Amino acid sequence: MEIIIVDDEDIILSGEQKLVQKCVPNARVQAFRSPEEALEYLRRIPVDVVFLDIEMPGYDGVTLAKKMKLIRPRVNIIFATAYRDYYEAAMSLRVSGYLLKPLKETEVLEELENLSFPLNPTNSGLFVRTFGSFEVFYDGRPLLFRYQKTKELFAYLIDRRGSMVSRDELITILWGGETERDSYYKQIQKDLSDTLCSIGKGDILIKQRGSVGVLANLINCDYYEWLEGSAEGVTSFFGEYMRQYDWAEETLANIEGRKNPCI
Fold first, then answer.
1. pTM given for the model
2. Which domains does the chain have, with CATH numbers?
């Protein structure tokens, strides 16, 4: 589970972070004083739950909640405030809950057990994020590869959406066509296979003589959701695609040129 807490007071923020982490020990709980930083994080990471203060300097929580809903319509927002006055405005947004400070463990647990939206499937199992920087998550945490080139290899296969890619094409993409890269290429291909097998996802990788690809229909990916025209996929795109890779610019241009992702 991926949880963030937004509050402008350090002491309260630290205390709430410890309390929520105690309630869900296996979750990743991040704390933000800055609403802008929280929004940026939400764009990059598939967050399940937001604990949100209402009265913050220069930003009110109701407005922030609206912006968060535009980015991730199914995020569960739980207001955590010292004021009862905003209850009606908050609930009109169909938020998941409304808690009064100081937070109590029993109340936090009750809210987490009765979320408005089931936990986001992108935080359960394998999820591939292409919008923004490319990243691979397993159960909400980044999946670690032995080599950086392994990650780029996987990124290119995701970009190809199931098309088989030859060894020569991959060497050109990864090393600019440098020769004498066969040994390293075999290492990173093995690293990719071993890493996926370690989480029970080895079946998404297809190998044929001299080429490799992925089974796109078995992969939970924001780019694939965007292509299908899903609400979650469409709202996930904010103008960037695999920004750390130059070769991804062609796909980005195609995305920006398509007004309707279903076409």
1. 0.61
2. 2-122 (3.40.50.2300), 126-256 (1.10.10.10)
